[in-house]
Design brief:
single chain, alpha/beta, Rossmann fold, 3 domains, seven-stranded mixed beta sheet, five-stranded mixed beta sheet, 17 strands, elongated
């Protein structure tokens, strides 16, 4: 140092002083104080750095989940629908980003079993809670439009982003000094995505949070909650219905309504209201998981654009105290369920006739027993295309394997929809997100009777269990009881950053 010219010495001293001043400023700055206080306290961040209205605040179970993540690093939470799982995940995204940015290389990867979960739920929650942050306590200006994008949060030293769960390479390629993975609706995320994340979780400052309404007792999310060998390092939490009611997130009356709607022993009630892993009964006609997958495809179909013409209308005609249901089918998509007041046969006939005439004389499949026979007769008088569905008629058809026959047309039609919904069929049937429909489709049981025939549980037994008839499901089953053309194509959407394949209706 003594051998250096005086000019160089002055420059070096100036640089050292500038670095010292910058270090002192960073240490004493409000944002540095924020980082020091909240870096390991996401529960405190949620309580103190969000503007809560009177009577608001995180539910006790949310506070516990936030606190445990900082200690356990790997947290898996299952709960009933509506517990605020995506809200909790959004708060963690903001906490992690704001406490690491500027001092560490950081990344947050958010993924979900369906892209829709990220675009419609998780990231809108991130935006919502970013708008309610107390920036005076954080020590910086609010996030700008250049920092908080639709599906991305950009910082000075890192970023948070949405990644599709069908792209394990992007998951695997995420590395940083500080990293967090958020698995939303984790029950159906493929195993290779979980495995791809493991490689990035070897660093010291690494976290994973997996939240979901549970489904069937299968898959990685279930294995974690079961505490299978190899998953002992996860902290698991079951948010109960009682906790949700105590937190004001659910009422007992609403839970009772769902029990009547779906049946208290049904898989859909166990999953969505009790937050328990449950599969459809072994003797159930249609597995709940297949129904839920069809609903996800409906959301994809809707985002891709509706087809122009309805081809088939399934019609369940209701008595005076019941409703009539119209299931509108285009290709292998039920585009819409229309629920009408029952009893007025002429009004029902008029609505069906209008649909057929507006859609190039589409075909109506109407329950032709009882009062539905009058609707069939009148539609025929009008010269419209109509097929009478006679549930009790003999069925000559056999199942896909050729092994089983059917006790009647009702049993065949339900089994036909089962085979169409089977993932192995490749038919991509899409069903609308209707709670009545989901519960009704998952409800009926079947048994094998003499002659290798499949017999469906009687309507009376189902009505006794559900306290209503399966009118929505019957309309859909009838709509799918006739063949029609369908084409799904996959392609890459050009001009977009995502290379995710999208379904496009033709």
């Amino acid at each position: 140092m003594s051998d250096l010219p005086d000019s160089v010495k002055r420059q070096l001293l100036q640089l050292a002083k500038a670095e010292a001043d910058a270090l002192e400023a960073s240490i004493s700055s409000p944002v540095a104080a924020f980082r020091a206080k909240y870096r390991d306290r996401p529960d405190l961040f949620a309580a103190e750095c969000i503007e809560w209205k009177a009577g608001e605040g995180p539910a006790p179970y949310q506070t516990e989940i936030l606190a445990e993540l900082a200690v356990r690093r790997r947290v898996a939470v299952r709960s009933p629908h509506g517990a605020g799982k995506s809200t909790t995940a959004a708060m963690l995204v903001l906490w992690f980003a704001l406490t690491r940015d500027g001092v560490a290389d950081w990344k947050i990867i958010t993924t979900a079993s369906a892209w829709r979960q990220l675009t419609l739920y998780l990231w809108p929650e991130v935006h919502k809670w970013a708008g309610r942050l107390r920036w005076d306590r954080i020590g910086r200006e609010p996030l700008t439009e250049q920092e908080l994008l639709q599906l991305m949060l950009k910082g000075r030293t890192g970023f948070a982003a949405a990644v599709a769960s069908n792209d394990h390479q992007k998951i695997e390629g995420a590395h940083a000094d500080s990293i967090m993975y958020v698995f939303d609706e984790a029950k159906a995320i493929p195993a290779d995505i979980w495995d791809a994340a493991e490689g990035a979780l070897m660093s010291g400052d690494a976290y994973t949070v997996a939240v979901s309404t549970p489904g069937e007792p299968a898959g990685r999310f279930y294995q974690i909650h079961k505490r299978d060998r190899g998953y002992e390092d996860w902290w698991v939490r079951h948010v109960t219905l009682a906790e949700m009611i105590a937190a004001g997130r659910m009422t007992q009356e609403k839970a009772d309504d769902r029990a009547r709607q779906w049946g208290q022993d049904s898989a859909v009630f166990q999953n969505r209201v009790l937050g328990q892993f449950a599969a459809s009964d072994e003797d159930g006609v249609i597995p709940l998981a297949w129904i839920e997958a069809a609903v996800e495809r409906w959301h994809e179909w809707k985002a891709a654009g509706r087809p122009g013409k309805v081809q088939v209308v399934g019609v369940d005609v209701g008595e005076s105290k019941d409703r009539s249901v119209l299931a509108l089918r285009a290709g292998n998509v039920i585009t819409e369920l229309r629920k009408e007041s029952g009893g007025d046969l002429m009004a029902t006939t008029g609505r069906v006739a209008g649909l057929l005439q507006a859609n190039d004389n589409a075909l109506a499949v109407v329950d032709g027993i009882g009062i539905g026979a009058g609707v069939v007769s009148r539609l025929r008088e009008l010269g419209l295309r109509v097929s009478a569905f006679i549930a009790s008629a003999a069925a000559s058809k056999r199942d896909r394997t050729g092994e089983f026959g059917f006790a009647n047309m009702r049993a065949w039609a339900w089994w036909n929809l089962r085979e169409m919904l089977d993932p192995a069929s490749g038919l991509d049937v899409a069903l609308p997100p209707d709670e009545d429909l989901t519960g009704e489709l998952a409800s009926p049981h079947w048994r094998e009777v003499s002659g290798g025939r499949i017999e469906l549980e009687s309507k009376d037994k189902i009505r006794e269990r559900l306290e209503r008839s399966t009118d929505c499901a019957d309309a859909v089953v009838q709509a799918f009881s006739v063949p029609t053309q369908h084409v799904w194509e996959y392609h890459k959407v050009e001009g977009r950053r995502s290379t995710q394949r999208e379904r496009v209706w033709r």
